[in-house]
From TrEMBL, chains A, B:
<dbReference type="Pfam" id="PF09298">
    <property type="entry name" value="FAA_hydrolase_N"/>
</dbReference>
<feature type="active site" description="Proton acceptor">
    <location>
        <position position="141"/>
    </location>
</feature>
<dbReference type="InterPro" id="IPR005959">
    <property type="entry name" value="Fumarylacetoacetase"/>
</dbReference>
<feature type="binding site">
    <location>
        <position position="207"/>
    </location>
    <ligand>
        <name>Ca(2+)</name>
    </ligand>
</feature>
<dbReference type="GO" id="GO:0006572">
    <property type="term" value="P:L-tyrosine catabolic process"/>
</dbReference>
<feature type="binding site">
    <location>
        <position position="252"/>
    </location>
    <ligand>
        <name>substrate</name>
    </ligand>
</feature>
<keyword id="KW-0460">Magnesium</keyword>
<feature type="binding site">
    <location>
        <position position="358"/>
    </location>
    <ligand>
        <name>substrate</name>
    </ligand>
</feature>
<keyword id="KW-0585">Phenylalanine catabolism</keyword>
<feature type="binding site">
    <location>
        <position position="150"/>
    </location>
    <ligand>
        <name>substrate</name>
    </ligand>
</feature>
<dbReference type="InterPro" id="IPR011234">
    <property type="entry name" value="Fumarylacetoacetase-like_C"/>
</dbReference>
<dbReference type="InterPro" id="IPR036663">
    <property type="entry name" value="Fumarylacetoacetase_C_sf"/>
</dbReference>
<dbReference type="InterPro" id="IPR036462">
    <property type="entry name" value="Fumarylacetoacetase_N_sf"/>
</dbReference>
<dbReference type="GO" id="GO:0046872">
    <property type="term" value="F:metal ion binding"/>
</dbReference>
<feature type="binding site">
    <location>
        <position position="134"/>
    </location>
    <ligand>
        <name>Ca(2+)</name>
    </ligand>
</feature>
<dbReference type="GO" id="GO:0006559">
    <property type="term" value="P:L-phenylalanine catabolic process"/>
</dbReference>
<protein>
    <recommendedName>
        <fullName>fumarylacetoacetase</fullName>
        <ecNumber>3.7.1.2</ecNumber>
    </recommendedName>
</protein>
Amino acid sequence: MPHPNDPSLRSFIPVDPASDFPIQNLPYGVFSTKAAPAPRVGVAIGDHVLDLAVLEGEGLIDLAPAFDVFAQGSLNAFMALGPKVWSRTRARISELLRHDNPQLRDNKILRASALMPMADTRLHLPIAVAGYTDFYSSKEHATNVGVMFRGKDNALQPNWLHMPIAYNGRASTVVVSGTKVRRPRGQLKPPSAEVPSFGPCKRLDFELEMGVVVGQSSVMGEMLTEKQAEAMIFGFVMLNDWSARDIQQWEYVPLGPFQAKAFATSISPWIVTREALEPFRVQGPVQDPAPLPYLRQTEPNNYDLQLDVALRAAQMNEAANICRTNFRYMYWSSVQQLVHHASSGCAMNVGDLLGSGTISGPDKHQRGSLLEISWNGTEPVELAGGVKRTFLEDGDSLSFHGWCQGDGYRVGFGEVEGTIAPAV
Amino acid sequence: MPHPNDPSLRSFIPVDPASDFPIQNLPYGVFSTKAAPAPRVGVAIGDHVLDLAVLEGEGLIDLAPAFDVFAQGSLNAFMALGPKVWSRTRARISELLRHDNPQLRDNKILRASALMPMADTRLHLPIAVAGYTDFYSSKEHATNVGVMFRGKDNALQPNWLHMPIAYNGRASTVVVSGTKVRRPRGQLKPPSAEVPSFGPCKRLDFELEMGVVVGQSSVMGEMLTEKQAEAMIFGFVMLNDWSARDIQQWEYVPLGPFQAKAFATSISPWIVTREALEPFRVQGPVQDPAPLPYLRQTEPNNYDLQLDVALRAAQMNEAANICRTNFRYMYWSSVQQLVHHASSGCAMNVGDLLGSGTISGPDKHQRGSLLEISWNGTEPVELAGGVKRTFLEDGDSLSFHGWCQGDGYRVGFGEVEGTIAPAV
């Protein structure tokens, strides 16, 4: 049997070469339909969704001794079964979708119940988020922010090159793409004000990130090796770490961001598996100084994954691209992040979500936040028809697209979108 | 029917006046026994545990339309039922335990199945922790730390008097009293070292805190009023926010503590309800400047709650008291903390745990951490028989006791204890 990543595979569902979801991808999500409103697990194939709960119910996917794993509103139960089951299941789904396999292709009744146009589905948050952690692992982003706030000579903090810096975020407000994002209120104290006031954020921003979905738990008190950490990663999503820059500026010393990042974090609905990204692994940037032994890598753990950010103001007909960058630029890899996260003995759980940190690149058009794009509000970006932005305004719609380009096909992430609703 | 807080109430189980658990308390916990190892919900009464799953099963406590609420390994399902049910249930338990009520008292078979000596039980983590947030709300603690690290003139950060500063902690490592705490490893870079190294923490500390158990959820995007926040508080536990000072010092700029606080947080097994603490409400310190309107309080939201910290090194026969302070000193109340937490629109969940921040008082013996007690390691504290400490050593056992003193009875929290195990 060919490997599910084999570029020559074709599905019996026709898939456009520009689609994010060919048979080489098979990302997992949670969906519902009007006819069947209970959320359940599916896989994206072209512009369709394959209902895994139906396939499991029909005995076409066997997860015994576990059962009803896909008839659930999150992927957590499936993830808990571990990497061997993830791999076996993906191979089985690939087999069922192949153009030369009649089992599902020629069973009209089964096709009608198991395959539906994605346009007819509603996509839900794919995981029950156990913990949400946000890293800060792009050297370009950390440098840009550092130059803005501390000047060129002290841009990177002394610890930055030695460990993947991170903070614990708020899991309760992780939402799926398409959820409106309400402009937060908070304490604001511009440098010119004597005392803080409370009101709507005036410097609302996005952060372009990828998110690691942790699919296995670790033992409290024990560290992880590179291999162990890698095996625990179920897959990746795109992640928008919405940020209230003015709230953050006033609150973050000395304990870090709190309400500035607590109001919403959006993720894409489809989790692209680590296995599907294997062909796109690349070496990350050279790490100098060499990381301490517990953080050393023996393998390339970065991915060649293109990322686009588009912004559409309410008065615009079409979105304008404001950033095009690549996940490969990240200084600290997701594996290093996970190893560091557990290094104190911190237990990791099924459903943990790790934000990569804002993904900026070396060029100006590769900046992954408006803070950087508008250089702290001093250089407004021109969108179209005279519309300019320093930070986000009410009604703005922000969307990320991400994909790995194969030879004649893409392994993509779809979209993560959020539109700004006015403060209450 | 008398109110369950009535000081004149007596239970048919004899309770020592020095006990933490008279009929005026009735704290909730999760326990199991050798004979029945499935964790379930109970209430502490004197030196006994009352099995609420048995009472619910027998129809003596009616939570309809909910059922099997107490035959569970956490209090989350019960908490989700809301403050009216909490209050009604507590009144019913009080009624069943009263010395003049024969219903349970004289039913030998029921007593044998529903009441057991606490010494024969194992106490578990009482809640499934949804999110863990740690505040920093004692002015004395923040000032002590500030003086140590920044000098007297800049002790308090400019934001401190305007909002309850906090960071998101790690929910996955909240453990119940009695769980061994493994000394964490991490990156250390003493000021004298050129580069960091990785190894066991050398400056391991405790932090004396109270924890708020949030029993209701809030709506994402919406703020809370003082009244709403108060009504969401199910109860309180004692909380030890174990801290690796050397790891923290190197990692915390600019995003706050991460691995330094991620390895363990211990809580006491019994949740004392907010209702049981009502008689001990007191006015907190004067807040000057006056808080912004969203943080203003119309009621006294502090509690007169005495707290003791005892440290016993492996070679000591008896623990030595190293701190005696009071929860009433907290500058920001738990209600203000919760209001601030939701102020950006951050959704709160059933099972959220909010650490108060280290509780120090104005006097030297009221310092709630070894960092303060030993003044950053410069003034070792004498325990007994020549044993001194700056920070915690392997084998040290640390325990908190806390209680509100009524007239002839106590509403207490029992103990939260942790013993340091060596690093792996």
